[in-house]
Each structure stands twice: as structure tokens, then as C-alpha cells.
Design brief:
By secondary structure, this protein is α+β, with helices and mostly antiparallel strands. The protein is built from 6 helices and 18 strands. The protein has an 18-stranded mixed beta sheet that branches. Strand 15 and strand 16 form a beta hairpin. The model has no long low-confidence stretch (mean pLDDT 95).
Length: 269
């Protein structure tokens, strides 16, 4: 793409953490030859109206990657990183086995392993907190709550996964809490080690089907509770996705997932 052609931008929509259509978390991906003005990037993300749109530019050491919700730029996004890697591997003929992305959260690496992609992210801690006033009412959650923690998001631990199915959040009330989002999590009780739902009206995303970045602290959180370093997780409400989490002893978390292309086209500015 020549600089003079920047009114036309390639665009891909990829379902991340999914192996079949209409599952997982859709992300927009726009490869760029150089950075456009931030206001243009934000407008593209708002036009997409997906939970995240990823933009990347080639560098001498890999790629510079950024993520935008319809409302703001964020520090870390897992599913859009997976989507960007899928585009590089499958549409842009990236020939190496590992992609290195320079981001607001440092260097992130994505490797291709058979039908899955492995994202190497820094692990994060979750610290216990007192119950935030009004949070349970905002979530439409009553009873069966075991505690509250704080990382990038507020974590609400419930005893049974059935509590997640009955959530009816008031997004206006949730938006007043000064975190990126709120995640409700429970033991999986069967096929999955843990399940969760994530809400983020604070950043313009009422509910995110699969939040890869949240698993940088959810995986260590559940590893400590279960004694397992490898966990299978499911996230979402009516739309769900699956990911494997490996908590390593070097302060990193490996997140594994599949992805598939849903839309390919051109943005015309």
C-alpha cells in the first residue's frame, strides 16, 4: 500500500478464541504502513463498533501494535492480539514462527502451534478488597458471593457458575466504578476449570465475550486456588469462547486459542 493510497485501508474481522463461526470474540484488524492520527484510529474503531480494533505497523524488530475500543485506547487486549497474529500468519504471509509485538504493555509474543496460537503475556496479581458499595446491585447479583479482588478489573468470585447465567447488569450503574471493567467468575464444575463474564461500560464495551487480557490475572488467581498451572477457561454470556491458560514460573502466562476469519474488506476514508 502506497502512502498516497491511505484513503483505502485493508480490514479484517476475526473471531478470536473460536474455531467455528459466530463464536468467541470478534476483533477488527487494520494493518497500516505508518501511523495515522489517533483521532482517525479512534473513529475507525467507533465505526466498527466491536469491543476492540487492532492496528499495527511493521518495525525493524517486529510490529508496533495498538488496540482501541469504540471509546478509548487500551493498554492490553488479548483477543485482538490473537486476531492480529492470525492476519499476519494467514493473510500477510508472515513466515517466521513467532511474532513480536511492541505495545503499551511491553513486548508480547505470539507463536503458531498446530491449530492454536499461543500468546505470551505478563502475569498480573489480584489483591483482595472490600465489597465495593453498590456493585452487587449493579450486577443484579444476590448471594453466593465468596469475595472481591482487584487487578485491572474488579473480580467478583461466586460459588456456582449458574450465578453467571442469571446476571442482569445495569450498565449505567456499573460505569461509575473506577476500573477498566468488572469480571464475575466461578468454578467451571465440569469441562472447564473456571468460567467468567466481563463487563466494561467504563471503556465503551458493555459485555466482552472473551477478554484475553483478563486471564493474565484470572489464570494465576485460579491456579493458586486449584493448585493447577494449566487450566481450561470459558468466558461469555450468550456468546462464548474458550482458551487454555498456562501459568509459568517466570512471571508469564501463556494463553492458547484458535481463531477464524469472518469478514475481509477495505476501509475507505
Amino acid at each position: 500500500m502506497k502512502k498516497s493510497d491511505l484513503t483505502k485501508l485493508p480490514f479484517y474481522q476475526v473471531d478470536a478464541f473460536a474455531s467455528q463461526p459466530f463464536a468467541g470474540n470478534p476483533a477488527g484488524v487494520c494493518p497500516l504502513t505508518h501511523w495515522l492520527d489517533d483521532s482517525v484510529l479512534q473513529s475507525i474503531a467507533s465505526e466498527n463498533n466491536l469491543s476492540e480494533t487492532a492496528f499495527f505497523v511493521s518495525t525493524t524488530e517486529g510490529y508496533h501494535l495498538r488496540w482501541f475500543t469504540p471509546a478509548v485506547e487500551v493498554d492490553l487486549c488479548g483477543h485482538a492480539t490473537l486476531a492480529a497474529a492470525w492476519v499476519l500468519f494467514n493473510k500477510l504471509n508472515y513466515s517466521e514462527n513467532v511474532i513480536h509485538f511492541s505495545t503499551r504493555s511491553g513486548i508480547l509474543s505470539v507463536s503458531k502451534e498446530a491449530d492454536e496460537y499461543c500468546m505470551d503475556f505478563p502475569a498480573k496479581k489480584a489483591l483482595p478488597i472490600d465489597e465495593p458499595e453498590g456493585l452487587l446491585a449493579a450486577l443484579g447479583l444476590a448471594g453466593n458471593v465468596e469475595g472481591f479482588w482487584l487487578s485491572d478489573d474488579i473480580i467478583v468470585l461466586v460459588k456456582d457458575k449458574s450465578c453467571l447465567e442469571n446476571l442482569n447488569p445495569d450498565f449505567n450503574k456499573l460505569a461509575v466504578f473506577k476500573t477498566r471493567g468488572v469480571i464475575v467468575t466461578a468454578p467451571g464444575g465440569g469441562e472447564f476449570d473456571f468460567v467468567s463474564r466481563w463487563f466494561g461500560p467504563q471503556v465503551g464495551v458493555n459485555e466482552d465475550p472473551v477478554t484475553g487480557s483478563a486471564h493474565t490475572f484470572l489464570a494465576p488467581f485460579w491456579a493458586e486456588r486449584s493448585g493447577k498451572n494449566e487450566l481450561l477457561a470459558q468466558q461469555g454470556g450468550s456468546r462464548k469462547g474458550t482458551l487454555r491458560c498456562c501459568v509459568r514460573n517466570d512471571g508469564r502466562v501463556a494463553l492458547y486459542g484458535s481463531a477464524r476469519l469472518m469478514i475481509e474488506g477495505t476501509f475507505i476514508l
